[in-house]
Amino acid sequence: ITLCLFFRWQKIFMFPLWSKLAVFWNKAFLTIIVLLIVLFFDAVREVKKYSAVHVSEKVVNVNTSAFDHIQMKLFRSQRNLYLSGFSLFLWLVLRRIVTLLTQLAKGMTTQAALEVQVNNTTEAAKKYITENEMLQQ
Asked: Where in the cell does this protein reside (predicted)?
């Protein structure tokens, strides 16, 4: 059952279109990772900026609307930091999973080819053994 399912998926992934798109998707994948890294570092910079303002504003005792505005900007920058960091982490995990699945598919293809070759060799050996026994008799 698993080999039948494997060969079905192998037929789907062996379309010539996928090999043409592979170069594009690798570049797109790396571009998205670079973009997420830039967004992550920008979010880190914003959090540091508004955290420093928060400390100095608390000491000076400014009006509450300015303090609330700074708190709002700090909250948004922290939110962006968490979103970009988690997105970057999941994107890297996704890339690793795709790499492992690709390696597994190649290994399964090699295993299936070797199994066929072993079966053919075993059948040929059995045939030659029986022929040899018939000749000896």
From this structure: Endoplasmic reticulum membrane; Membrane
Joined together, the tokens standing for residue 13 give 């992934």
Amino acid at 10: Q
What is the distance between the terminal CA atoms of the chain, rounded to a whole angstrom? 43
> Is 43 in contact with 84 (CB distance < 8 Å)?
yes
pTM of this structure: 0.64
Residue ranges in the chain modelled with pLDDT below 50: 59
CA distance linking residue 114 with residue 36, whole number of Å: 42
Residues 52 and 125: their CA atoms lie apart, in Å, by 79
